[in-house]
Predict the 3D structure of the following.
Amino acid sequence: MGMTITEKILAAHAGKEAVRPGDLIDARVDVALGNDITAPIAIEQFRKTGRKTVFDKNKVVLVADHFAPNKDIKSAQQCAFMRRFAREQDLTHYFEGGNAGIEHVLLPEQGIVLPGDLVIGADSHTCTYGGLGAFATGVGSTDLAAVMATGRLWFKVPETVKFVYSGTRRPWVDGKDLILYTIGRIGVDGALYQAMEFTGETVDTLSMDERFTMANMAIEAGAKNGIFIPDGVVETYVHQRAERPYRFYESDPDASYKDIVEIDVSGIEPQVAFPHLPENVRGIRDVGKIPIDQAVIGSCTNGRFSDLATAAKVLKGKKAAPGVRLIIIPATPAVYKQALTEGLFDVFLDAGAVISPPTCGPCLGGYMGILAEGERAVATTNRNFVGRMGHRKSEVYLSNPAVAAASAVLGRLAGPDDLGVLY
Amino acid sequence: MRFEGRAWKFGANVDTDAIIPARYLNESDPEALAAHCMEDEDSRFVFDARPGDIIVAGTNFGCGSSREHAPIAIKARGIPCVIASSFARIFYRNAFNMGLPILESSDAVAGVSEGDTVEADLSSGRITNLTTGAVFSSKPIPPFMQRIIQDGGLMGHIAKAKEKE
Protein backbone atom coordinates (compact mmCIF):
# COMPACT_ATOMS: atom_id res chain seq x y z
CA MET A 1 0.00 0.00 0.00
CA GLY A 2 1.21 3.48 -0.86
CA MET A 3 1.97 6.38 1.44
CA THR A 4 0.88 10.00 1.62
CA ILE A 5 3.41 12.82 1.34
CA THR A 6 3.20 13.30 5.13
CA GLU A 7 3.91 9.61 5.77
CA LYS A 8 6.82 9.62 3.31
CA ILE A 9 8.54 12.61 4.90
CA LEU A 10 8.08 11.16 8.40
CA ALA A 11 9.36 7.74 7.27
CA ALA A 12 12.44 9.27 5.63
CA HIS A 13 13.30 11.19 8.80
CA ALA A 14 12.76 8.15 11.00
CA GLY A 15 15.05 6.01 8.81
CA LYS A 16 12.18 3.69 7.91
CA GLU A 17 10.96 2.24 4.63
CA ALA A 18 7.37 2.94 5.54
CA VAL A 19 5.18 4.29 8.32
CA ARG A 20 1.45 3.98 8.96
CA PRO A 21 -1.00 6.25 10.77
CA GLY A 22 -0.78 5.61 14.51
CA ASP A 23 2.90 4.54 14.40
CA LEU A 24 5.06 6.17 17.05
CA ILE A 25 8.38 7.18 15.52
CA ASP A 26 11.58 8.87 16.60
CA ALA A 27 12.55 11.26 13.84
CA ARG A 28 15.41 13.54 12.81
CA VAL A 29 14.47 17.24 12.70
CA ASP A 30 15.84 19.55 9.97
CA VAL A 31 14.85 22.91 11.44
CA ALA A 32 13.76 23.84 14.99
CA LEU A 33 12.24 27.29 15.54
CA GLY A 34 11.58 29.43 18.58
CA ASN A 35 10.48 33.04 19.09
CA ASP A 36 10.71 35.69 21.80
CA ILE A 37 7.66 34.26 23.62
CA THR A 38 8.43 30.55 23.46
CA ALA A 39 12.24 30.40 23.27
CA PRO A 40 12.89 31.75 26.79
CA ILE A 41 11.05 28.76 28.33
CA ALA A 42 12.74 26.40 25.86
CA ILE A 43 16.17 27.75 26.77
CA GLU A 44 15.49 27.21 30.48
CA GLN A 45 14.31 23.66 29.70
CA PHE A 46 17.37 23.07 27.48
CA ARG A 47 19.64 23.97 30.43
CA LYS A 48 17.94 21.27 32.50
CA THR A 49 19.10 18.60 30.01
CA GLY A 50 22.68 19.26 31.06
CA ARG A 51 23.79 19.82 27.44
CA LYS A 52 26.16 22.68 26.82
CA THR A 53 25.56 23.20 23.10
CA VAL A 54 22.63 22.81 20.74
CA PHE A 55 22.70 19.79 18.40
CA ASP A 56 23.44 21.91 15.32
CA LYS A 57 23.92 25.67 15.30
CA ASN A 58 22.68 25.85 11.70
CA LYS A 59 19.37 24.14 12.48
CA VAL A 60 18.14 25.98 15.56
CA VAL A 61 16.46 29.20 14.43
CA LEU A 62 15.43 32.01 16.78
CA VAL A 63 13.33 34.99 15.69
CA ALA A 64 12.31 38.03 17.78
CA ASP A 65 8.97 38.85 16.19
CA HIS A 66 6.04 38.56 18.61
CA PHE A 67 6.64 41.45 21.00
CA ALA A 68 9.56 42.90 19.01
CA PRO A 69 10.63 45.63 18.39
CA ASN A 70 10.44 45.35 22.19
CA LYS A 71 7.05 46.56 23.38
CA ASP A 72 7.87 46.94 27.07
CA ILE A 73 10.52 46.17 29.65
CA LYS A 74 9.42 42.58 30.25
CA SER A 75 9.44 41.88 26.50
CA ALA A 76 12.87 43.47 26.26
CA GLN A 77 14.09 41.16 29.01
CA GLN A 78 12.79 38.12 27.13
CA CYS A 79 14.43 39.28 23.88
CA ALA A 80 17.71 39.96 25.72
CA PHE A 81 17.60 36.48 27.27
CA MET A 82 17.09 34.92 23.84
CA ARG A 83 19.82 37.11 22.29
CA ARG A 84 22.38 36.05 24.90
CA PHE A 85 21.63 32.41 24.18
CA ALA A 86 21.85 32.93 20.40
CA ARG A 87 25.27 34.56 20.78
CA GLU A 88 26.51 31.99 23.27
CA GLN A 89 25.52 29.18 20.89
CA ASP A 90 26.72 31.15 17.84
CA LEU A 91 23.46 30.40 16.02
CA THR A 92 23.63 30.97 12.26
CA HIS A 93 19.96 31.91 11.99
CA TYR A 94 19.17 34.42 14.69
CA PHE A 95 16.96 37.34 13.65
CA GLU A 96 16.26 40.62 15.43
CA GLY A 97 15.87 44.29 14.60
CA GLY A 98 16.15 45.14 10.92
CA ASN A 99 16.86 41.50 10.02
CA ALA A 100 13.78 40.16 11.71
CA GLY A 101 10.35 39.58 10.30
CA ILE A 102 7.38 37.39 11.09
CA GLU A 103 8.97 33.96 11.42
CA HIS A 104 6.69 31.98 9.13
CA VAL A 105 7.17 34.43 6.28
CA LEU A 106 10.86 34.94 6.99
CA LEU A 107 12.06 31.32 7.09
CA PRO A 108 10.80 30.29 3.64
CA GLU A 109 11.87 33.64 2.18
CA GLN A 110 15.42 33.11 3.49
CA GLY A 111 15.55 29.54 2.18
CA ILE A 112 15.90 28.16 5.73
CA VAL A 113 13.01 25.70 5.33
CA LEU A 114 12.78 23.66 2.14
CA PRO A 115 10.56 21.04 0.51
CA GLY A 116 10.79 17.61 2.11
CA ASP A 117 12.05 19.00 5.44
CA LEU A 118 10.77 17.96 8.84
CA VAL A 119 10.32 21.20 10.78
CA ILE A 120 9.14 21.79 14.33
CA GLY A 121 8.55 25.18 15.86
CA ALA A 122 7.42 26.40 19.24
CA ASP A 123 4.65 28.32 17.51
CA SER A 124 1.39 26.83 16.37
CA HIS A 125 1.58 28.39 12.91
CA THR A 126 4.74 26.44 12.09
CA CYS A 127 2.39 24.39 9.88
CA THR A 128 2.77 27.23 7.31
CA TYR A 129 5.78 25.49 5.72
CA GLY A 130 3.54 22.74 4.44
CA GLY A 131 3.01 25.16 1.55
CA LEU A 132 6.45 24.09 0.32
CA GLY A 133 5.74 20.37 0.68
CA ALA A 134 7.51 20.11 4.04
CA PHE A 135 6.18 18.37 7.15
CA ALA A 136 5.95 21.16 9.68
CA THR A 137 4.15 21.23 13.01
CA GLY A 138 3.87 23.37 16.11
CA VAL A 139 5.07 22.11 19.48
CA GLY A 140 5.53 23.52 22.96
CA SER A 141 8.71 24.95 24.41
CA THR A 142 9.74 21.70 26.13
CA ASP A 143 9.57 19.74 22.88
CA LEU A 144 11.64 22.48 21.25
CA ALA A 145 14.18 22.15 24.08
CA ALA A 146 14.38 18.39 23.48
CA VAL A 147 15.12 19.01 19.79
CA MET A 148 17.66 21.73 20.61
CA ALA A 149 19.45 19.13 22.73
CA THR A 150 19.18 16.05 20.53
CA GLY A 151 18.02 17.02 17.04
CA ARG A 152 15.27 14.45 17.32
CA LEU A 153 11.67 14.18 18.54
CA TRP A 154 9.01 11.49 18.80
CA PHE A 155 5.89 11.78 16.68
CA LYS A 156 2.67 9.89 16.20
CA VAL A 157 2.07 9.48 12.47
CA PRO A 158 -1.22 11.26 11.75
CA GLU A 159 -4.05 10.06 9.57
CA THR A 160 -4.42 12.20 6.47
CA VAL A 161 -7.57 13.85 5.16
CA LYS A 162 -7.40 14.81 1.50
CA PHE A 163 -9.10 18.02 0.41
CA VAL A 164 -9.77 18.18 -3.33
CA TYR A 165 -10.57 21.66 -4.66
CA SER A 166 -12.12 21.98 -8.11
CA GLY A 167 -13.69 24.73 -10.19
CA THR A 168 -12.76 28.28 -11.08
CA ARG A 169 -12.41 30.86 -8.36
CA ARG A 170 -14.61 33.96 -8.42
CA PRO A 171 -12.97 37.39 -8.47
CA TRP A 172 -11.28 38.38 -5.17
CA VAL A 173 -11.39 34.82 -3.85
CA ASP A 174 -7.91 33.77 -2.74
CA GLY A 175 -6.26 31.10 -0.61
CA LYS A 176 -7.55 32.74 2.57
CA ASP A 177 -11.14 32.27 1.44
CA LEU A 178 -10.56 28.63 0.54
CA ILE A 179 -9.11 27.83 3.95
CA LEU A 180 -11.75 29.84 5.86
CA TYR A 181 -14.47 28.08 3.88
CA THR A 182 -12.84 24.71 4.62
CA ILE A 183 -12.62 25.44 8.36
CA GLY A 184 -16.24 26.58 8.27
CA ARG A 185 -17.17 23.27 6.72
CA ILE A 186 -15.24 20.91 9.02
CA GLY A 187 -15.04 23.00 12.23
CA VAL A 188 -12.20 24.14 14.46
CA ASP A 189 -11.52 20.57 15.54
CA GLY A 190 -12.53 19.00 12.23
CA ALA A 191 -8.98 17.80 11.52
CA LEU A 192 -7.85 17.24 15.12
CA TYR A 193 -4.55 15.30 15.24
CA GLN A 194 -4.72 14.81 11.46
CA ALA A 195 -2.78 15.89 8.37
CA MET A 196 -4.66 18.08 5.88
CA GLU A 197 -3.47 17.45 2.32
CA PHE A 198 -4.56 20.18 -0.09
CA THR A 199 -4.97 18.99 -3.69
CA GLY A 200 -7.04 19.43 -6.83
CA GLU A 201 -7.11 21.45 -10.03
CA THR A 202 -7.84 24.71 -8.20
CA VAL A 203 -4.85 24.24 -5.93
CA ASP A 204 -2.60 24.12 -9.01
CA THR A 205 -3.63 27.72 -9.72
CA LEU A 206 -2.68 28.99 -6.25
CA SER A 207 0.39 31.20 -5.89
CA MET A 208 3.14 30.29 -3.43
CA ASP A 209 1.85 32.99 -1.05
CA GLU A 210 -1.70 31.60 -1.16
CA ARG A 211 -0.44 28.10 -0.37
CA PHE A 212 1.41 29.43 2.68
CA THR A 213 -1.82 31.15 3.77
CA MET A 214 -3.80 27.92 3.55
CA ALA A 215 -1.21 25.70 5.24
CA ASN A 216 -0.84 28.39 7.93
CA MET A 217 -4.44 27.96 9.06
CA ALA A 218 -4.47 24.15 9.15
CA ILE A 219 -3.99 24.51 12.92
CA GLU A 220 -7.28 26.43 13.09
CA ALA A 221 -8.98 23.16 12.14
CA GLY A 222 -6.97 21.37 14.83
CA ALA A 223 -4.63 19.71 12.32
CA LYS A 224 -1.13 18.50 13.05
CA ASN A 225 0.04 19.74 9.67
CA GLY A 226 -1.25 21.06 6.38
CA ILE A 227 0.60 20.14 3.22
CA PHE A 228 0.68 20.67 -0.54
CA ILE A 229 2.33 18.45 -3.15
CA PRO A 230 5.20 20.60 -4.44
CA ASP A 231 5.17 21.53 -8.14
CA GLY A 232 6.67 24.07 -10.53
CA VAL A 233 5.38 26.98 -8.45
CA VAL A 234 7.36 25.68 -5.47
CA GLU A 235 10.43 24.96 -7.61
CA THR A 236 10.44 28.53 -8.92
CA TYR A 237 10.18 29.82 -5.34
CA VAL A 238 12.89 27.68 -3.77
CA HIS A 239 15.54 27.13 -6.40
CA GLN A 240 17.15 30.54 -5.97
CA ARG A 241 16.82 30.51 -2.19
CA ALA A 242 18.03 27.02 -1.30
CA GLU A 243 21.61 26.57 -0.18
CA ARG A 244 21.26 22.86 0.54
CA PRO A 245 19.58 19.94 -1.23
CA TYR A 246 15.83 19.52 -0.98
CA ARG A 247 13.42 16.87 -2.09
CA PHE A 248 9.95 16.87 -3.60
CA TYR A 249 7.72 14.16 -2.21
CA GLU A 250 4.28 13.28 -3.51
CA SER A 251 1.50 11.01 -2.32
CA ASP A 252 1.21 7.61 -3.96
CA PRO A 253 -1.94 6.99 -6.05
CA ASP A 254 -2.83 4.12 -3.70
CA ALA A 255 -2.14 6.03 -0.47
CA SER A 256 -4.92 5.65 2.07
CA TYR A 257 -6.86 8.56 3.51
CA LYS A 258 -9.10 8.84 6.54
CA ASP A 259 -11.45 10.90 4.44
CA ILE A 260 -11.61 12.73 1.13
CA VAL A 261 -13.42 16.06 1.13
CA GLU A 262 -14.35 17.49 -2.26
CA ILE A 263 -14.91 21.22 -2.49
CA ASP A 264 -16.25 22.99 -5.58
CA VAL A 265 -14.88 26.52 -5.26
CA SER A 266 -16.94 28.07 -8.03
CA GLY A 267 -19.72 29.08 -5.64
CA ILE A 268 -17.46 30.40 -2.90
CA GLU A 269 -17.50 34.15 -2.21
CA PRO A 270 -14.90 36.03 -0.18
CA GLN A 271 -15.34 34.70 3.37
CA VAL A 272 -15.49 36.46 6.72
CA ALA A 273 -15.07 34.56 10.01
CA PHE A 274 -17.23 36.15 12.68
CA PRO A 275 -16.31 36.24 16.38
CA HIS A 276 -15.17 34.23 18.21
CA LEU A 277 -14.09 31.19 16.20
CA PRO A 278 -12.49 30.82 12.74
CA GLU A 279 -15.27 28.35 11.83
CA ASN A 280 -18.01 31.02 12.04
CA VAL A 281 -17.73 31.92 8.36
CA ARG A 282 -20.16 33.74 6.10
CA GLY A 283 -19.95 34.81 2.48
CA ILE A 284 -19.35 38.55 2.06
CA ARG A 285 -22.90 39.07 0.76
CA ASP A 286 -24.31 37.72 4.01
CA VAL A 287 -22.35 39.77 6.52
CA GLY A 288 -24.98 42.48 7.07
CA LYS A 289 -24.07 45.99 8.20
CA ILE A 290 -21.22 45.65 10.67
CA PRO A 291 -19.33 48.89 11.34
CA ILE A 292 -15.61 48.56 12.08
CA ASP A 293 -13.08 50.63 14.02
CA GLN A 294 -9.89 49.08 12.71
CA ALA A 295 -8.53 47.11 9.76
CA VAL A 296 -5.30 45.12 10.11
CA ILE A 297 -3.52 43.82 7.01
CA GLY A 298 -0.52 41.67 7.90
CA SER A 299 0.50 38.58 9.96
CA CYS A 300 2.01 35.19 9.13
CA THR A 301 -1.24 34.44 7.34
CA ASN A 302 -1.49 37.46 5.01
CA GLY A 303 1.52 39.76 5.41
CA ARG A 304 3.30 38.78 2.19
CA PHE A 305 3.94 41.02 -0.80
CA SER A 306 1.04 39.72 -2.87
CA ASP A 307 -1.30 40.38 0.08
CA LEU A 308 -0.15 43.98 0.28
CA ALA A 309 -0.39 44.33 -3.52
CA THR A 310 -4.02 43.15 -3.41
CA ALA A 311 -4.78 45.63 -0.62
CA ALA A 312 -3.14 48.42 -2.63
CA LYS A 313 -5.22 47.56 -5.67
CA VAL A 314 -8.37 48.10 -3.61
CA LEU A 315 -7.07 51.15 -1.74
CA LYS A 316 -5.60 53.02 -4.73
CA GLY A 317 -6.98 56.55 -4.84
CA LYS A 318 -9.21 55.97 -1.81
CA LYS A 319 -9.11 56.80 1.86
CA ALA A 320 -9.92 54.86 4.97
CA ALA A 321 -13.30 55.93 6.33
CA PRO A 322 -13.21 58.58 9.06
CA GLY A 323 -12.72 56.88 12.40
CA VAL A 324 -11.25 53.70 10.94
CA ARG A 325 -7.64 52.94 11.83
CA LEU A 326 -5.99 51.14 8.91
CA ILE A 327 -2.82 49.32 9.99
CA ILE A 328 -0.58 47.64 7.44
CA ILE A 329 2.21 45.35 8.59
CA PRO A 330 4.63 44.06 5.95
CA ALA A 331 5.76 40.70 7.32
CA THR A 332 9.49 40.92 6.65
CA PRO A 333 12.13 43.52 5.75
CA ALA A 334 12.16 42.15 2.17
CA VAL A 335 8.38 42.51 1.86
CA TYR A 336 8.65 45.98 3.38
CA LYS A 337 11.32 47.06 0.89
CA GLN A 338 9.49 45.65 -2.12
CA ALA A 339 6.27 47.37 -1.05
CA LEU A 340 8.21 50.61 -0.67
CA THR A 341 10.07 50.45 -3.98
CA GLU A 342 7.01 49.37 -5.94
CA GLY A 343 4.99 52.34 -4.76
CA LEU A 344 2.58 50.55 -2.42
CA PHE A 345 3.51 52.79 0.49
CA ASP A 346 2.30 55.84 -1.47
CA VAL A 347 -1.09 54.18 -1.90
CA PHE A 348 -1.23 53.18 1.77
CA LEU A 349 -0.13 56.56 3.12
CA ASP A 350 -2.53 58.41 0.80
CA ALA A 351 -5.27 56.14 2.15
CA GLY A 352 -4.41 57.24 5.67
CA ALA A 353 -2.83 53.96 6.73
CA VAL A 354 -0.31 53.44 9.50
CA ILE A 355 2.57 51.29 8.26
CA SER A 356 4.11 49.19 11.01
CA PRO A 357 7.53 47.56 11.07
CA PRO A 358 7.37 43.76 10.72
CA THR A 359 5.93 42.23 13.91
CA CYS A 360 3.20 39.83 15.03
CA GLY A 361 2.02 42.80 17.15
CA PRO A 362 -1.77 43.14 17.19
CA CYS A 363 -2.58 39.66 15.82
CA LEU A 364 -2.19 38.18 19.28
CA GLY A 365 -3.10 41.32 21.18
CA GLY A 366 0.51 42.27 21.82
CA TYR A 367 0.70 45.88 20.69
CA MET A 368 0.64 48.11 17.58
CA GLY A 369 -3.14 48.15 17.28
CA ILE A 370 -4.93 46.91 20.41
CA LEU A 371 -8.72 47.14 20.55
CA ALA A 372 -10.68 48.94 23.26
CA GLU A 373 -13.86 47.62 24.86
CA GLY A 374 -16.61 47.27 22.27
CA GLU A 375 -14.36 47.91 19.26
CA ARG A 376 -14.42 45.80 16.11
CA ALA A 377 -11.59 44.99 13.73
CA VAL A 378 -11.48 43.28 10.38
CA ALA A 379 -8.12 41.52 10.14
CA THR A 380 -6.24 39.33 7.70
CA THR A 381 -4.91 37.38 10.68
CA ASN A 382 -5.76 33.83 11.75
CA ARG A 383 -7.65 33.88 15.07
CA ASN A 384 -10.68 35.73 16.34
CA PHE A 385 -10.89 34.26 19.84
CA VAL A 386 -12.28 36.29 22.74
CA GLY A 387 -9.77 39.04 23.58
CA ARG A 388 -7.38 37.99 20.84
CA MET A 389 -6.63 41.55 19.67
CA GLY A 390 -7.29 43.39 22.89
CA HIS A 391 -10.19 43.90 25.29
CA ARG A 392 -12.22 40.81 25.97
CA LYS A 393 -15.29 42.70 24.79
CA SER A 394 -13.72 43.56 21.44
CA GLU A 395 -14.34 41.62 18.24
CA VAL A 396 -12.18 40.37 15.36
CA TYR A 397 -13.52 39.45 11.91
CA LEU A 398 -11.11 37.44 9.76
CA SER A 399 -10.92 38.04 6.02
CA ASN A 400 -8.65 38.21 2.99
CA PRO A 401 -6.65 41.41 2.24
CA ALA A 402 -9.10 42.71 -0.40
CA VAL A 403 -12.04 42.52 1.99
CA ALA A 404 -10.03 44.12 4.82
CA ALA A 405 -9.02 46.99 2.51
CA ALA A 406 -12.54 47.53 1.16
CA SER A 407 -13.95 47.42 4.70
CA ALA A 408 -11.44 50.07 5.81
CA VAL A 409 -12.65 52.41 3.04
CA LEU A 410 -16.36 51.86 3.67
CA GLY A 411 -16.07 51.72 7.46
CA ARG A 412 -18.03 48.48 7.59
CA LEU A 413 -17.53 44.86 6.58
CA ALA A 414 -17.56 44.95 2.79
CA GLY A 415 -16.00 43.42 -0.30
CA PRO A 416 -14.22 45.17 -3.18
CA ASP A 417 -17.38 44.73 -5.28
CA ASP A 418 -19.24 47.00 -2.83
CA LEU A 419 -16.56 49.58 -3.59
CA GLY A 420 -16.86 49.09 -7.33
CA VAL A 421 -13.23 48.05 -7.70
CA LEU A 422 -12.65 45.89 -10.77
CA TYR A 423 -10.74 42.64 -10.22
CA MET B 1 -2.36 9.08 41.44
CA ARG B 2 -5.76 10.32 42.64
CA PHE B 3 -7.21 13.81 42.78
CA GLU B 4 -10.40 15.05 44.38
CA GLY B 5 -11.74 18.55 43.88
CA ARG B 6 -14.56 20.92 43.07
CA ALA B 7 -15.46 21.16 39.38
CA TRP B 8 -15.30 24.30 37.27
CA LYS B 9 -17.27 23.73 34.08
CA PHE B 10 -16.28 25.28 30.75
CA GLY B 11 -17.69 24.86 27.25
CA ALA B 12 -16.11 23.69 23.98
CA ASN B 13 -13.06 25.20 22.26
CA VAL B 14 -11.50 26.87 25.29
CA ASP B 15 -8.46 28.33 23.51
CA THR B 16 -5.03 29.13 24.90
CA ASP B 17 -5.77 32.87 24.66
CA ALA B 18 -8.64 32.22 27.08
CA ILE B 19 -6.44 30.11 29.37
CA ILE B 20 -3.71 32.75 29.45
CA PRO B 21 -4.14 35.89 27.28
CA ALA B 22 -1.12 36.75 25.12
CA ARG B 23 -0.87 40.18 26.73
CA TYR B 24 0.65 38.45 29.76
CA LEU B 25 3.22 36.46 27.79
CA ASN B 26 5.93 39.07 28.23
CA GLU B 27 7.09 36.91 31.12
CA SER B 28 7.01 33.23 31.99
CA ASP B 29 7.00 33.19 35.81
CA PRO B 30 4.38 30.54 36.75
CA GLU B 31 2.86 32.55 39.62
CA ALA B 32 2.53 35.66 37.45
CA LEU B 33 0.79 33.62 34.74
CA ALA B 34 -1.46 31.85 37.28
CA ALA B 35 -2.82 35.23 38.41
CA HIS B 36 -4.47 35.64 34.99
CA CYS B 37 -5.48 32.05 34.30
CA MET B 38 -8.91 31.86 32.54
CA GLU B 39 -9.32 35.62 33.02
CA ASP B 40 -11.11 36.29 29.71
CA GLU B 41 -13.14 33.06 29.84
CA ASP B 42 -14.61 33.43 33.34
CA SER B 43 -13.40 36.33 35.47
CA ARG B 44 -14.67 34.59 38.65
CA PHE B 45 -12.08 31.86 38.19
CA VAL B 46 -9.21 34.25 38.89
CA PHE B 47 -10.65 35.07 42.32
CA ASP B 48 -12.68 32.04 43.32
CA ALA B 49 -10.76 29.00 42.12
CA ARG B 50 -9.19 27.12 45.03
CA PRO B 51 -6.09 24.96 44.88
CA GLY B 52 -7.30 21.44 44.21
CA ASP B 53 -10.25 22.48 42.05
CA ILE B 54 -10.61 20.54 38.79
CA ILE B 55 -11.34 21.98 35.34
CA VAL B 56 -14.03 20.10 33.38
CA ALA B 57 -14.51 21.28 29.78
CA GLY B 58 -15.98 20.37 26.40
CA THR B 59 -14.28 19.43 23.15
CA ASN B 60 -10.98 20.79 21.78
CA PHE B 61 -9.70 22.20 25.10
CA GLY B 62 -6.48 24.18 24.63
CA CYS B 63 -6.91 24.95 20.94
CA GLY B 64 -4.98 27.78 19.34
CA SER B 65 -1.42 28.74 20.10
CA SER B 66 1.39 26.41 21.15
CA ARG B 67 2.14 28.41 24.30
CA GLU B 68 3.32 26.18 27.12
CA HIS B 69 2.33 29.06 29.34
CA ALA B 70 -1.21 27.62 29.23
CA PRO B 71 -0.60 24.37 31.16
CA ILE B 72 1.96 26.26 33.31
CA ALA B 73 -0.72 28.78 34.33
CA ILE B 74 -3.30 26.07 35.10
CA LYS B 75 -0.85 24.04 37.15
CA ALA B 76 0.49 27.07 39.04
CA ARG B 77 -3.12 28.04 39.86
CA GLY B 78 -3.24 24.81 41.84
CA ILE B 79 -5.45 22.87 39.43
CA PRO B 80 -4.26 19.25 39.69
CA CYS B 81 -6.01 17.88 36.62
CA VAL B 82 -8.15 18.80 33.60
CA ILE B 83 -10.97 16.60 32.30
CA ALA B 84 -12.32 17.39 28.81
CA SER B 85 -14.26 15.74 26.01
CA SER B 86 -11.17 16.18 23.83
CA PHE B 87 -7.95 18.17 23.82
CA ALA B 88 -6.20 20.14 21.09
CA ARG B 89 -3.08 18.35 19.91
CA ILE B 90 -0.32 20.71 21.01
CA PHE B 91 -1.94 21.33 24.40
CA TYR B 92 -2.19 17.58 25.00
CA ARG B 93 1.55 17.16 24.60
CA ASN B 94 2.43 20.33 26.48
CA ALA B 95 0.28 19.34 29.46
CA PHE B 96 2.16 16.10 30.09
CA ASN B 97 5.50 17.77 29.35
CA MET B 98 4.64 20.29 32.09
CA GLY B 99 3.42 17.62 34.50
CA LEU B 100 -0.29 18.49 34.28
CA PRO B 101 -2.41 15.32 34.02
CA ILE B 102 -5.38 15.43 31.65
CA LEU B 103 -8.17 12.93 31.07
CA GLU B 104 -10.53 12.57 28.11
CA SER B 105 -14.15 11.58 28.76
CA SER B 106 -17.22 13.05 27.09
CA ASP B 107 -19.46 11.08 29.49
CA ALA B 108 -17.78 12.58 32.55
CA VAL B 109 -18.06 16.07 31.09
CA ALA B 110 -21.78 15.52 30.48
CA GLY B 111 -22.26 14.03 33.93
CA VAL B 112 -20.55 16.71 36.01
CA SER B 113 -22.08 20.09 36.91
CA GLU B 114 -20.32 23.19 38.12
CA GLY B 115 -19.47 22.85 41.80
CA ASP B 116 -19.79 19.05 41.95
CA THR B 117 -17.02 17.23 43.75
CA VAL B 118 -15.09 15.04 41.35
CA GLU B 119 -12.57 12.30 41.92
CA ALA B 120 -10.11 11.32 39.19
CA ASP B 121 -7.92 8.23 39.37
CA LEU B 122 -5.14 8.28 36.77
CA SER B 123 -4.14 4.62 37.08
CA SER B 124 -7.61 3.27 36.32
CA GLY B 125 -8.92 6.27 34.37
CA ARG B 126 -11.99 6.18 36.62
CA ILE B 127 -13.74 9.51 37.13
CA THR B 128 -16.34 9.67 39.92
CA ASN B 129 -18.83 12.42 40.55
CA LEU B 130 -18.87 12.21 44.36
CA THR B 131 -21.83 14.60 44.49
CA THR B 132 -24.12 12.38 42.40
CA GLY B 133 -22.34 9.04 42.73
CA ALA B 134 -22.04 8.62 38.96
CA VAL B 135 -18.93 6.82 37.69
CA PHE B 136 -17.29 7.36 34.30
CA SER B 137 -14.31 5.85 32.53
CA SER B 138 -11.43 7.37 30.59
CA LYS B 139 -8.21 5.98 29.19
CA PRO B 140 -5.85 5.16 32.10
CA ILE B 141 -2.60 7.12 32.28
CA PRO B 142 0.22 4.55 32.00
CA PRO B 143 2.77 4.32 34.85
CA PHE B 144 5.63 5.98 32.90
CA MET B 145 3.41 8.98 32.13
CA GLN B 146 2.45 9.20 35.81
CA ARG B 147 6.15 9.27 36.69
CA ILE B 148 6.61 12.25 34.34
CA ILE B 149 3.80 13.98 36.24
CA GLN B 150 5.28 13.06 39.63
CA ASP B 151 8.65 14.44 38.55
CA GLY B 152 7.04 17.77 37.64
CA GLY B 153 7.19 17.31 33.88
CA LEU B 154 9.38 15.84 31.16
CA MET B 155 12.55 17.78 31.96
CA GLY B 156 12.30 17.06 35.67
CA HIS B 157 11.78 13.42 34.75
CA ILE B 158 14.88 13.38 32.53
CA ALA B 159 16.95 15.11 35.22
CA LYS B 160 15.79 12.57 37.82
CA ALA B 161 16.62 9.67 35.52
CA LYS B 162 20.08 11.15 35.06
CA GLU B 163 20.61 11.35 38.85
CA LYS B 164 19.95 7.63 39.10
CA GLU B 165 22.57 6.78 36.44
